[in-house]
Amino acid sequence: MKAGTTTLYRDILRHPLVFLPSQKEPDTLVRFAEPGEIRDDWSRLFADAKSGQIKGEASTAYAKRPDHEGIAERAFSVCGSQLKIIYIKRDPVERLVSHYRHELAHGTVTGDINDAIHRFPRLIDYSRYAWQIEPWKRAFGDANVLEVDLATYSENRALGAAAVIEFLGLDPSALPAIDPSNIANRADEAKRLKNPAMQAFITSNFYQRRIRSLFSADLRERVRRAMLPAIKAVDASLTDESLAYIHDVLASETVVEADHAPASAR
User: Fold this and answer.
1) How remote is the C-alpha of 97 from its chain's centroid?
2) What predicted TM-score, i.e. pTM, was given to this entire model?
3) Could you give all domains of the chain from N- to C-terminal order, each with its CATH number?
């Protein structure tokens, strides 16, 4: 979350053999626990995929421990060991600050950031990258998990996207040129839909799966920038004490370095 997933999503979507639905984050593995329900939801989500296309989605909730546990195991129960996982990471403090501003604008966190990091542990937890990705490595093996550094990716998105496409087993030369100025969800262009009814509509499955796909991502982005009011800038300055606390938490995270072989091999 707040680590460049939308930009990466749009970049690799341009490859002709990649199918990603217009609903970027369906949260299928969070909303359903039974393999049959998961398969049914993905079948609906990927119904428009063409023969030969690789299918995927980009729900950031799948790496939001401890709010959602057991997600990697659910994925393995449906996909087996063939699933490829792409995990994009950002400077952990920068991600935390962006996350705080996002949730503050939507009313899901309150107060000063130096207080919020204690009252809303997820602000730090989602930046505990090794801990977040560990269940996926355990279930699918290191070879099936690609960790992408946002700063490195942003320096040369064409090269970064090509590496992701190659990881998926596809020909990166088929990837069209990428406009480096087209960055999704820029912090300096953050927008918020204030009408609750409209917000509920655009986040509904009906809109996300039936209506949204009728319009290109570029068109939706132009409309968003033109029509929605900008989010008011807020001070999100971390004190030295808060920075020390954050770094202590990140440095002390414990990751079980057990066998990372796929579950089927254990």
Assistant:
1) 16
2) 0.78
3) 5-190+230-254 (3.40.50.300)
